[in-house]
Design goal:
The complex is a heterodimer. Helix content of chain A is 48%, strand content 22%. By secondary structure, chain A is α/β, with parallel strands linked by helices. In chain A, strands 2-1-3-4-5 form a 5-stranded parallel beta sheet, sandwiched between helices. In chain A, helix 1 links the parallel strand 1 and strand 2. In chain A, helix 3 runs parallel beside helix 4. By secondary structure, chain B is an alpha/beta fold. Chain B folds into 3 domains: 108 residues, Response regulator (Rossmann fold, 3-Layer(aba) Sandwich), CATH 3.40.50; 132 residues, no CATH class; 168 residues, Histidine kinase-like ATPase, C-terminal domain (Heat Shock Protein 90, 2-Layer Sandwich), CATH 3.30.565. Chain B has 15 helices and 12 strands. Chain B has a 5-stranded parallel beta sheet, with helices on both faces. In chain B, strand 4, helix 4 and strand 5 form a beta-alpha-beta unit. Chain B is rod-shaped, with a radius of gyration of 44 Å. About 1% of the residues of chain B have low confidence. The chains are: A alpha/beta, B alpha/beta. At the A-B interface, helix 1 and strand 2 of A face helix 5, helix 7, helix 8 and helix 10 of B.
């Protein structure tokens, strides 16, 4: 069975936990969910999944993280995997970074914490539909 | 001022004298208004203020002394120089002439050179005085304007720092809010599901499987330690392997759910997982776990948000009484670090070396401003990446700068606390080091700093009778703040 993956990246465990159960609740076992607490970890996960031939459909990434930030991370991913849909989920808007991600990583949408569950699901559904 | 064009009032009841004075002075291009008595003199002064008055003393009616007294009593006329004229044979009180405000005197009969010399001298003096007064006034105005401009800049600096803090705080608060909002939905959804699932589950499950179900739920609920995303992946892989070894289907989703619940081995639950409706059973257990786990998530989020709010409150604690309060220095620094957390975590490692230091009398919110400025500068110097080391301790006697050299009481070495803030940034050149505490001096690109940050720091430390010094080389810049534990006066 070839599972498709939704990957969430945030340095805050409380965010990943709550995202995990939201995704689990809405999409159940239709997708696999992967979580990473930093951009570096996420890149590792992406390359592992890629080696295993598992397709990543969507990445939901925080912007403000230690080390590599969300814009840089998504732009880097975009160079290798332009087909993955990229969503940013951030607590504080850095317009410049969002604009850059929009331009250079084809950002699908930027959501703001505290996010609305329906909006998140709608964003993912519309991203998955692309 | 060209004294030659000056306007001189000559007052004498002797017409011959008046004519003589007029002739001498007009001959030297002065404008002269001759008047024969005191009363006319006063009205002439009020009609047009002269630059100088030559005033005879002995006159019928109002004497020169009386005229002078009146002039000096009036603010509009008090600064006009008065030179008394007195006949040699008259009884003339020089002391009285000066005490009434006369600047000089001439005795009759006079020589024209003497009159001209004295008039010239006093006109120049008056003119110099006027120029000085004007300059003084202009300087005072300029000083007031500067002071108000400086106050505005200090305020702007504070507002800029506040703006940055607000942006950081927005992030710090929105993160836990996001988690809380999502967790509440998760709990609510899981609860609805549980209410549906549990009765069905108990109808379908044989009693000993029910015991297994409770054991599984219990194991998940008792699992207090939160696994990192990496650990969860590892656990999921090992669970998947165990499930495959048991020849089970749906190994991916089972492994996923079990790993999320933190179940480390499937062996105690194999019979449960072999049930026909095992997927439903697992979902039911998971929903119970979701309720507890998301509640815990909310607790953590609330603690996080409270910490930020507490830091804000401590930061902005305003003390209008202007009295020193007892406070703990490391706690104040931690408050500032909490507020800068979002900037620090972009790539700065913070090393704290806090030794045992007593609480001390200080202006806590002002000290917070000191730590804010120093930490903010450090972050900027490192361009957001590097190591920030903060040391708080009792300094050795040899380290103490001569702080109270004028003090009679020799402070013991335990009378100070030293706070050292070290960054791994680009460093400050020696020329800049000598000037960084000057107001308006800045090494930052224009628009990024007012150049007042360290001036404010210096002022606050002075208010605490402390000292600040800087040592810098590329890669290591240390600001050391010495604060007396008990401040006198």
């Amino acid at each position: 069975m070839s599972q498709k993956v939704i990957l969430c990246v945030d340095d805050e465990e409380i965010i990943l936990t709550s995202l995990r159960d939201q995704l689990q609740n809405h999409f159940g076992s239709r997708y696999m969910y992967e979580f990473a607490e930093s951009a570096d970890e996420a890149l590792e996960v992406i390359s592992e999944l890629n080696e295993d031939g598992v397709e990543i459909l969507i990445i939901v990434s925080d912007w403000l993280m230690p080390e590599m930030k969300g814009d840089e991370f998504l732009i880097r991913v975009h160079k290798q995997f332009p087909g993955i849909v990229k969503v940013m989920l951030t607590g504080h808007a850095n317009e410049e970074a969002i604009e850059r991600t929009r331009r250079e990583a084809n950002l699908h949408r930027c959501l703001y914490k505290p996010w609305d569950e329906e909006e998140l699901i709608e964003t993912l559904v519309s991203g998955l539909g692309n | 001022m060209d004294t030659r064009k000056a306007n001189i009032l000559a007052v004498d009841d002797t017409h011959a004298n008046l004519r003589l004075l007029t002739r001498i002075l007009t001959g030297h291009k002065y404008t002269v208004r001759p008047v024969p008595d005191g009363l006319l003199a006063l009205s002439a002064v009020y009609a047009e203020t002269p630059d100088l008055i030559l005033l005879d003393i002995m006159m019928p009616g109002m004497t020169g002394y009386e005229v002078c007294e009146k002039l000096k009593a009036d603010e509009r006329t008090r600064d006009i120089p008065v030179i008394f004229i007195s006949a040699k044979n008259e009884i003339f009180d020089k002391v009285k002439a000066f005490s009434l405000g006369g600047v000089d005197y001439i005795t009759k009969p006079f020589q024209s050179e003497e009159v001209l010399a004295r008039v010239e001298t006093h006109l120049s003096l008056r003119s110099l005085q006027t120029t000085l007064e004007e300059k003084n006034k202009a300087l005072t105005e300029a000083y007031e304007q500067l002071k108000s401009a400086q106050n505005q800049l200090i305020l702007r600096e504070k507002m800029a720092a506040l703006g940055q803090l607000v942006a950081g705080v927005a992030h710090e608060i929105n993160t836990p809010l996001g988690a809380i909002r999502a967790s509440i939905n998760n709990i609510s959804n899981a609860l609805s599901a549980s209410v549906r699932q549990l009765p069905q589950l108990f109808q379908e499950l044989p009693p000993d499987r029910q015991a297994d179900f409770f054991a599984l739920s219990q194991a998940a609920l008792e699992n207090r330690k939160n696994l990192s995303s990496r650990e969860t992946r590892k656990l999921r892989r090992s669970l998947k392997k165990e499930l495959e070894e048991q020849g089970m289907n749906e190994t991916d989703s089972f492994a996923n759910i079990l790993a999320n619940m933190g179940i480390s081995h499937i062996s105690p639950f194999i019979r449960l997982l072999e049930e026909e409706n095992s997927s439903f059973i697992l979902q039911t257990a998971y929903n119970l776990f979701v309720q507890q786990n998301n509640s815990r998530n909310i607790m953590t989020a609330v603690e996080r948000a409270s910490k930020v709010v507490f830091a804000l409150k401590s930061y902005a604690r305003h003390d209008d009484s202007d009295q020193m309060l007892s406070a703990n220095v490391p706690e104040g620094i931690d408050v500032v670090l909490t507020l800068y957390d979002n900037q620090l975590k972009k790539g700065i490692e913070v090393i704290k070396n806090y030794g045992e230091v007593p609480d001390m009398l200080c202006y806590p919110d002002e000290l917070n401003q000191v730590w804010t400025n120093l930490i903010h500068n450090a972050i900027q110097a490192m361009e957001g990446k590097g190591i920030l080391e903060i040391t708080v301790r009792i300094p050795d006697a040899s380290e103490l700068p001569d702080i109270r050299s004028d003090s009679e009481t020799e402070p013991g070495q335990d009378a100070y606390v030293i706070v050292q803030i070290t960054d791994s940034g680009c460093g400050i050149s020696e020329e800049a080091q000598a000037r960084i505490f000057e107001p308006f001096f800045t090494t930052k690109p224009s628009g990024e700093g007012s150049g007042l940050g360290l001036d404010i720091v210096q002022n606050i430390i002075d208010r605490h009778q402390g000292r600040i010094k800087v040592e810098s080389q590329p890669g290591k810049t240390t600001f050391s703040v010495f604060l007396p534990i008990s401040v006198s006066g």
